[in-house]
């Protein structure tokens, strides 16, 4: 398969401050093709940000990638030296983090924060770097706001403007893959709509691939080509977006989408959003059977003691459940 990125059986664990071990990723398989937008959906704690940070190898010190492979442009990221990873980050592989306000340097002009990325990864002189940074800001900000923003400090910008600066940083060196971790989660509805328009334009260009982490089915529907749904550190179902949103197969995915998709009965005053009964498994333990077993309304006898197999990282469409073997 001609994929830009292949993640194979990725396991990540965190050592806890009280001696326990958190199993955050428990065998993730997925792939991203050139020009494709892969959406990642999953409830809080399912391992989405851990996956994003693993890809860029920016996990905190108490994390360990204990098993698996991540092959990007034909190279196993786990076998690259720190220097090689530094060359790759920003240049070929970039990230738009969950909170733009936290990722910008508060004492540095935003234009300089973009030229920093260019200086580190792209071979050009100071004048060209400045022109390039202004051009990207200009493109991402309507009217003349882009050029005047070059001299601004992050605290002088709105949340939407900060998010555009972070997107500009990610785009600066034309990476082939951008991992965006809930890029609109911290924004109000109007600003979210503006940022989504930016993503729509970037997608239409088809010049780069995206992994787009989101809780929002509207974003998935509009912006992604395929969706991978995570539960308890595994991808339990993935496939073309339309197929996942309209005909999900895995019982967890069916339940999650029933909670997330707009429902007519929500308009009835006092009616609450449906949620899947029960809670995800404790990530400090390891289950012998299917992780979703305690919450699954379709479970069969073998689900308690055996784990359903995966079809691997290379399949475009797969579901990890005994009902579909
Ligand atoms: N630095 C850390 N130390 C210990 N455990 C961690 C650390 N970071 C994440 N975890 C744990 O790893 C698991 C996966 O967390 P992660 O942040 O990847 O989830 P997520 O799907 O991104 O959630 P959210 O939707 O809330 O952002 C959780 O159980 C979380 O508590
Ligand atoms: S394997 Fe069994 S418990 Fe797990 S999701 Fe499928 S039916 Fe439910
Ligand atoms: Mg997260």
Explain what you see:
Strand 9 and strand 10 form a beta hairpin. With 325 residues, the chain is an alpha/beta fold. Helix 5 crosses helix 7 and helix 7 runs parallel beside helix 8 (189-205). The model has no long low-confidence stretch (mean pLDDT 88). It has a domain at 5-81 and 177-185 and 211-324: 3-Layer(aba) Sandwich (Rossmann fold), CATH 3.40.50.300. The strands form two sheets. A seven-stranded mixed sheet has the order 6-7-8-3-9-10-11, with helices on both faces. The protein has helices at residues 48-56, 82-88, 100-103, 110-121, 126-140, 145-149, 159-171, 189-205, 217-223, 241-246, 251-260; strands at 5-15, 21-32, 37-41, 63-72, 75-76, 93-96, 177-181, 209-213, 226-231, 234-240, 318-319. It is 32% helix and 21% strand. Iron/sulfur cluster binds next to loops.
Concise account of the structure shown:
The protein has 325 residues and is an alpha/beta fold.
Count every helix, treating DSSP H or I runs of 4 or more residues as helices.
11
Indicate the CATH class of the domain at 5-81 and 177-185 and 211-324. Answer: Alpha Beta
Outline the low-pLDDT stretches.
none
Q: At the fourth CATH level, what is the homologous superfamily of the domain at 5-81 and 177-185 and 211-324?
A: P-loop containing nucleotide triphosphate hydrolases
Give a short account of the largest sheet: 7 strands, mixed
Which small-molecule species are bound to the chains here?
adenosine-5'-triphosphate, iron/sulfur cluster, magnesium ion
Helix/sheet category: alpha/beta
Helix content: 25-40%
Rg over CA atoms: 21 Å
Spatial sequence of strands, sheet with the most strands? 6-7-8-3-9-10-11
């Amino acid at each position: 398969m001609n994929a830009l990125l292949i993640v194979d059986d990725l396991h990540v664990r965190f050592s806890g401050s009280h001696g326990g071990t958190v199993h955050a990723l428990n065998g993730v398989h997925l792939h991203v093709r050139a020009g494709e937008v892969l959406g990642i959906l999953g409830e809080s704690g399912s391992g989405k940000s851990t996956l994003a940070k693993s890809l860029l190898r920016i996990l905190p010190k108490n994390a360990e990638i204990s098993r698996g492979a991540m092959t990007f442009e034909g190279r196993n990221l786990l076998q690259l030296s720190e220097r090689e990873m530094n060359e790759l980050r920003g240049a070929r592989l970039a990230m738009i983090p969950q909170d733009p306000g936290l990722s910008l340097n508060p004492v540095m002009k935003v234009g300089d924060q973009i030229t920093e990325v260019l200086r580190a990864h792209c071979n050009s002189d100071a004048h060209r770097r400045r022109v390039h940074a202004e051009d990207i800001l200009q493109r991402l900000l309507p009217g003349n706001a882009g050029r005047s923003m070059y001299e601004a400090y992050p605290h002088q910008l709105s949340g939407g403007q900060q998010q555009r600066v972070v997107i500009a940083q990610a785009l600066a060196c034309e990476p082939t893959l951008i991992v965006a971790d809930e890029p609109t989660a911290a924004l109000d509805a109007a600003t979210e709509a503006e940022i989504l328009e930016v993503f729509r334009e970037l997608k239409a260009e088809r010049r780069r691939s995206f992994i787009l982490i989101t809780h929002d089915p509207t974003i998935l529907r509009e912006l992604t080509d395929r969706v991978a749904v995570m539960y308890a550190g595994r991808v339990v179902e993935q496939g073309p977006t339309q197929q996942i949103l309209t005909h999900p197969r895995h019982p967890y995915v069916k339940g999650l989408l029933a909670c997330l998709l707009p429902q007519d009965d929500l308009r009835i005053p006092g009616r609450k959003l449906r949620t899947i009964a029960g809670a995800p498994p404790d990530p400090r333990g390891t289950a012998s059977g299917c992780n979703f077993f305690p919450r699954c309304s379709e479970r069969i006898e073998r689900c308690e003691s055996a784990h359903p197999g995966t079809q691997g990282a290379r399949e475009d469409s797969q579901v990890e459940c005994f009902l579909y073997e």
